[in-house]
DNA sequence: ATGTGTTTTAAACTTATGTTTGAAACATGG
DNA sequence: CCATGTTTCAAACATAAGTTTAAAACACAT
């Protein structure tokens, strides 16, 4: 076999895919602005002009990476159950997916993290991300919370409870640097993640169940 | 009166102070990396070399700004009550301060926001911020939550409940761009902020109170 | 008025980073 | 083998942004 540098599999798909993967990791770690095309290409083993060739520019590559990230995150840690599941089960599935996406520190877990980062440091790509990824998940959780609160709950209470559930999960992402200082620990084990997810579910279910009762007294 | 450009009040204190204020706003809005010295100086009405003269470099100016921010945030929305206050009252005060720091959108409210931004996008200055600002507040909340949970609560449960309370508040900061898309609204009114703070307190108190009871059954 | 220290200034310097360019290398069909 | 389209490459280009420099302006005491 000759030392041919490229076969068709090694070119079209491979460079572009390597860029997608490398960009995902770098963007998730550093954010859009701080990530440099040179870093990404170094990691991908590609020439920097390849970004222009395959994607057009940095922003367009980013948008592609975001889309890819959502697909991957969803596949790895799905947040939905079938419609026959109870609200409690659905809440558990939702929270668990979110917590796992956040706390999984293996190399192949950048997908969810990139989405969380985009949420807090938006680029032009946020609008699309909201419509394609975030809104559907929001609506699902809203439905679950509304069922748990019961038919008498007003829209604002449902909404604020949705945020309360979501905020507990997302905290572990946004505050990870603080947690690392205040409560140093190593990487989260499977049990850690499960314990945290269970706590968030328990805390939230307790709140939702009791928050209605004081009304009777 | 001559057209003298500078008097002693307009020089030493004024330029440095103008830089502090302008830098605070720009850093809070854009973060350390994206904020440029040129933007800050433009806003402060100063020459860019003034940063080097008064602070040494960008990072040192940032550290000064952070320190100043904490003092101001704490003064404007204090999170502590006296030791005679009940745990519930102390929780309310803590949550309220946090929520108000986050949701106040007036021009003079960048202080808290800068701290939140540093938490999620840390620079070299985080360590100092944690020790001087965040850890004391964390310890205070931990004490409150431990009291609310009662003497039998283990350390891990207390900690996770602390995060659950905190996460609900911080959510409004981290997810502000998402909230703006999913639930468009104008600036938060005083009542909005109070309502949100009350909800977080109620949600959290309900959770904390009921999360222990199922143990008896 | 002079000397000295402080503060401000415009310009220059240095480095980093996204984008572009034109040629080389490659892949494939006729 | 040649023609054509695709992909990769090194170098150049253009711009941005932090830091430095040296001089001017200022403040104040003697």
Word description of this protein:
Two copies of one chain form a homodimer. By secondary structure, the first copy, chain A, is mainly alpha-helical. Chain A folds into two domains: 8-66, Arc Repressor Mutant, subunit A; 70-215, Tetracycline Repressor, domain 2 (Orthogonal Bundle), CATH 1.10.357. Helices cover 75% and strands 0% of the residues of chain A. Chain A contains ten helices and no strands. Chain A has helices at 8-34, 37-44, 49-55, 58-76, 87-103, 110-120, 126-149, 155-174, 176-182, 190-212. In chain A, helix 1 crosses helix 4, helix 1 runs parallel beside helix 6 and helix 5 (87-103) runs antiparallel to helix 7. Mean pLDDT of chain A is 89; it is low at 1-11. The interface between A and B is large, with 49 and 49 residues. The first copy, chain A, binds a DNA duplex (30 and 30 nucleotides) through residues 4-8, 11-12, 15, 36-38, 46-54, 57-58.
What's the SSE blueprint?
The structure is a homodimer of 217-residue chains.
Chain A (H helix, E strand, L loop, with lengths): L7 H27 L2 H8 L4 H7 L2 H19 L10 H17 L6 H11 L5 H24 L5 H20 L1 H7 L7 H23 L5
The structure holds a DNA duplex (30 and 30 nucleotides).
List keywords for this structure.
disordered N terminus, Arc Repressor Mutant, subunit A, 2 domains, homodimer, 217 residues, mainly alpha, 0% strand, DNA-binding
């Amino acid at each position: 076999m000759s030392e041919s540098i490229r076969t068709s599999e090694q070119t079209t798909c491979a460079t572009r895919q390597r860029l997608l993967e490398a960009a995902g990791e770098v963007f998730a770690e550093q954010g859009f602005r701080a990530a440099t095309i040179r870093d990404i290409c170094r990691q991908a083993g590609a020439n920097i002009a390849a970004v222009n060739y395959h994607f057009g520019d940095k922003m367009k590559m980013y948008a592609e990476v975001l889309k890819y990230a959502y697909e991957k995150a969803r596949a790895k840690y799905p947040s939905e159950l079938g419609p026959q599941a109870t609200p409690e089960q659905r809440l558990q599935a939702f929270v668990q997916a979110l917590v796992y996406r956040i706390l999984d520190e293996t190399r192949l877990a950048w997908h969810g993290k990139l989405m969380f980062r985009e949420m807090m440091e938006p680029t032009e790509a946020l609008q699309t991300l909201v419509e394609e990824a975030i809104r559907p998940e929001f609506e699902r959780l809203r439905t679950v919370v509304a069922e748990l609160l019961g038919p008498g709950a007003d829209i604002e209470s449902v909404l604020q409870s949705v945020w309360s559930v979501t905020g507990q999960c997302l905290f572990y992402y946004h505050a990870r640097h603080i947690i690392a200082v205040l409560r140093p620990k190593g990487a989260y084990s499977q049990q850690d993640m499960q314990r945290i997810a269970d706590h968030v579910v328990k805390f939230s279910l307790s709140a939702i169940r009791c928050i209605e009762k004081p009304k009777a007294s």
